[in-house]
Amino acid sequence: MNRIHRLSRLRALLSERALDAVVITHPSNRFWLSGYTGEDIAPNESAGHVVITHQEAYLVVSTMNAPQARQEAPHFQIYDRERNFARADALLLQECGARRIGFEDGAILYQDYQTLSQTLGEGISLEPLGSAVDALREVKTADELERIIHAQQITEQALLTALAEFTPGQTERTLARRLDQAMLEHGADRPAFPTIVASGPNAALPHHTPGDRSIAPGETVVIDMGAMVDGYCADLTRTVWFGELPSEAEYAFTVVLQALEAVERQLHAGMTGKAADGIAREHIAAAGYGEAFTHSLGHGVGVRVHEGPALSPRNEEPLPAGSVVTLEPGIYRPGQFGIRIEDLVVIEPDGLRILTTVPKRITLPLA
Question: Which CATH topology does 142-364 take?
Answer without folding.
Answer: Creatine Amidinohydrolase (3.90.230)
